[in-house]
């Protein structure tokens, strides 16, 4: 048997996302943008990769491994 919150909470979240969020979000968006500035998002740094890529990963090429896997003999 499933508990009541396991049924009610997903239904309420679906109703909010489907019907209430399109009405509520435009009203609260200006206040959110004041507190959550875009500068905080832009401050993240991109990782720099100084290693050169020669097209191989762990000794294999893009066309496949150089060695053939052992096949079962009859």
Entry summary:
InterPro entries: UPF0729_C18orf32-like. Belongs to the UPF0729 family. The chain is mostly helical and 74 residues long.
Commentary on this structure:
The chain has 74 residues and is mainly α. Helices cover 50% and strands 0% of the residues. It has 2 helices and no strands. The chain has helices spanning 4-35, 38-42.
- What portion of residues belong to β-strands? under 5%
Distance, first to last CA: 55 Å
- Order of helix and strand elements from N to C terminus: HH
Average residue-wise pLDDT:
75
Tell me the Rg in angstroms.
27 Å
Helix content: 40-55%
* Major β-sheet profile: none
- Count of strand segments: 0
How many helical elements? 2
Which residue ranges are poorly predicted, with pLDDT under 50 across at least 5 consecutive positions?
none
User: Which structural class best describes the helix and strand composition?
Assistant: mainly alpha
What is the approximate shape?
flat
């Amino acid at each position: 048997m499933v508990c009541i919150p396991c049924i009610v909470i997903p239904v309420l979240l679906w109703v909010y996302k489907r019907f209430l969020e399109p009405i509520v979000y435009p009203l609260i968006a200006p206040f959110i943008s004041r507190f959550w500035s875009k500068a905080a998002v832009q401050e993240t740094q991109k990782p720099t990769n100084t290693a050169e890529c020669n097209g191989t990963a762990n000794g294999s090429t893009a066309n496949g491994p150089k060695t053939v896997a052992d096949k079962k003999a009859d």
